[in-house]
Amino acid sequence: MRDPYLPSTVEIVNVKRQTVDVKTYKVRFAKDQEKRKFPVMPGQFIMISIPGLGEAPFSLSALPEKTDTFDTTIRTVGNVTSVLNRYGVGARLGVRGPYGRPWPVKEAKEKNVLLIAGGIGLAPLRPVIKTIQKNRRSYGDFEILYGARTPSDQLFTDEYEEWRRTPRTSLSLTVDSVPTGVAWPHKTGVVTGLFDDMETSPENSMVMTCGPEIMMKFVVRGLLARNFQKNQIYVSLERRMRCGMGHCGHCQIGGRFVCRDGPVFTYSELEGLPDLAL
Amino acid sequence: MKPAIVMKKDLNDFVSELRDEFLILGPRKKRSQHVFSGIDDVQDLDLDYLTTILPPKKLFFPPKDTVLLFDGIGEPVSAPLEKKKQLVFGIHSCDLNGLLLLDKVFQKDISYPRYIERRKNATIIALTCTKVGDTCFCDSMGTGPAPIEGFDILLTDLGNRFLVETATAEGRRLAAKMKTIEAKDSDLKLKTSLVSETKMKFRKKVNTKGLAETLARRLDHPIWKQLGEKDLACAQCVMSCPTCFCMDIRDQWENAPGETSRCVEWDACFLLEFAEVALGGNFRKDRGARLRQFMGHNLSWGGSAQYGPVSGQHKCVGCGRCIRVCPVGIDITEVAKEIGGN
Question: Which end of chain A is more exposed for a tag (fewer CB within 10 A), N or C?
Answer without folding.
Answer: N
